[in-house]
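Quick start: read one record
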Amino acid sequence: MAQLLPLSIVVPARDEADRIVEFLDAHRWAAERIVVDNGSCDETVALATAAGARVIHCLDGTIADARNAGADAASYPWVLALDADERADLALSEELAGLLPNPRADAYFIRRRHLYHGREQRHGTLRPDLVLRFYRRSMRFEPRKVHETLHASGVIGTLSATICHDSYRDRAHHLAKLERYAQWGAEDLHARGRRANLFDRLVRPSWRLFRSYVLMGGFRDGAAGWELARLEAIGVKRKYEILAGMSKKQSP
């Protein structure tokens, strides 16, 4: 692609020194790449700057806050929101090149494929999904700590090309991420006045395991499908354990 695409890629990053350069190199076709530092303690900022990215800071905010700060700083009217563990396929850059001169929508869903231990997952919770990530700069993500969503208005379209998501470096990273998201999820629920009960702690984890492994077909992905379903159930259990602990602290 001879010409850089007139769009801004926004990526929140916290302690991503091991993959931020690879991420930026994979998206050199964008005219602007904005790394929103979310409080890194490693070399993320220095490496991103050396790789030609524009770096801004959103310390201690949520991922949604970081995405919104990046959109506020963007130089172009269209934003492609990615994570450091995602890569846009070359076909996506080509599709965007054809779309940008005359967009027919105001925001676009993008198809996302998921890898686990190097293998693409077809079923379970990591089966292919749609994420609303290409949008006009004026739109904003809901400020939640987990599962942030874009408040989109106008016409919503869907792109044909994909992005690839490789979320977990190894099992230790998966467990650490699981604990972090359980904490964030509990904080979100607590802020909305939710309290944990016996049903939450005993039934919800088992239901999540059954849903992921059986109803969503995780068993078709073999050992990886079982591991993903089991760890997801552990994550649900931890979320409600943390929520229960937060509730106790508030009790007189």
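The longest strand covers residues 156-166.
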